[in-house]
């Protein structure tokens, strides 16, 4: 029986095609897999389509190291039933993706893929112009050449992750070159919540594709009555066009972007904004919260003027009591990237929600306590999409980089997303509420850009059945 892609899925009661889909789908797509320790390999297949045997052997050889979505969901249920959230005894996650050029090296046509962004790739002039990304010459070396495949190995325990990474490396042959390597490492605050390098709780707001996750969000994680994170499977899954059975074999488009964070510049921007608005005492923390949209501890600025979030932090909110943006500015990162129905363009919420994507990023780079690194640390931004143009590219291009979004009444011009906005030339000034909840705003010159894109690519993460069939 075909399953309904327009709704979230109950994996525990899944039967027939839905169950087969879960057995053939890679893990980490429908639900994030633990990846506190993460290694990424960016691969180049030196041999052309006339000789794809070694590249194909690598991909089939990886399958025994990989786990299906179904296996992963069972593992998570078992930890919970055993009263522990410790995933450390299970094998690490191994994920595999291919670029369009990668499919061609396997002597397969990528024409069956419909996504334009995937077909262009991130290095294409059109993509870079669209996203206002830096010249390729400024990207890190591993991203400058054509990438064919990505392999991710992630887990909770560094030892088992490295053991699995070695098993992956043992499958590489002379004609399969490692263009680049990335190492991700989770950062945490004192309450053990995952944070990013600017110090803010990250990864909290996600689209949820499983009814079991939605129920948990509703009953134990703070509710879903104001903000419904539920999304149909069609917002993340794509029928794998090259797999044996597209009715049950699914994959997902995957975006990777290495985003370097200049922590010193961001910290200075927080101070400068607090100074410009004459914020005093503990209210100075609100400056950074206005850049991100949440306080460091995750408290949404639209709900509270001061931090004090519980764990997990609140996500059942929208901006309906803040339509003038005098609590959380329009240009705050989380309001730009998810306006929760308060956006411009006159688009109904149901349509606006379609742009959201399953974020699976991880921080990279070592730093010592108290350090304010200017380079070498950042976010390996990763996300699964069913439509890269309408999800990731729309978010970066039409929301984050669009100084006029949202522009419900023509004025004011909110400015770029304060964390990830990119644009040529000078960044426009933005207006900020000096007092939380008071409409009168003050214009302040724009901060310097603190996040720099260092390279990236679009991949398709195929079904396990496709990989086995090679
Ligand atoms: C270095 C770069 C980035 C940093 C430091 C960063 C930081 C954060 C933080 C602290 C949050 C709040 C936690 C949460 O609500 O889950 C967040 C949320 C979010 N970010 Fe980012 N982010 C970065 C890059 C990106 C990129 C490239 C995109 C997409 C183009 C993006 C899209 C989002 C979205 C959609 C949310 C959730 C908003 C919501 O649903 O309320 N982020 N980010």
Please give the number of β-strands.
14
Q: N-to-C terminal Cα separation, in Å? A: 27 Å
Q: Can you summarize the main beta sheet?
A: 6 strands, antiparallel
Low-confidence stretches: none
Counting DSSP H or I runs of 4 or more residues, the number of helices is 15
Number of domain modules: 2
Q: Which geometry do the CA atoms define?
A: globular
Helix/strand order, N-terminal first: HEHHEHHHHEHEEEHEEHHHHEEEHEEEH
Label the structural class.
Answer: alpha+beta
Determine the mean pLDDT: 95
List each distinct ligand once: protoporphyrin IX containing FE
Name the helicity range.
25-40%
Radius of gyration: 22 Å
Q: Name the beta content range.
A: 15-25%
Query: Please, what is the oligomeric state?
Result: single chain
Describe the structure.
This protein is α+β, with helices and mostly antiparallel strands and 470 residues long. The chain has two domains: 16-259 and 461-469, no CATH class; 262-455, no CATH class. It contains 15 helices and 14 strands. It has helices at 16-24, 53-62, 69-81, 100-105, 116-120, 125-131, 141-144, 158-170, 211-219, 263-276, 285-292, 333-337, 349-352, 389-400, 464-469; strands at 37-45, 93-98, 149-155, 176-185, 187-188, 194-195, 238-239, 250-261, 358-359, 362-364, 378-385, 430-433, 441-444, 451-461. Strands 7, 8, 9, 10, 11 and 14 form a six-stranded antiparallel sheet that branches. A four-stranded antiparallel sheet has the order 2-3-1-4. The protein has a two-stranded antiparallel sheet with strand order 5-6. Helix 10 (263-276) packs across helix 11 (285-292). The longest helix has 14 residues, at 263-276. The protein is globular and about 65 Å long. The chain starts with 15 loop residues before the first helix and ends with a helix. The structure holds protoporphyrin IX containing FE.
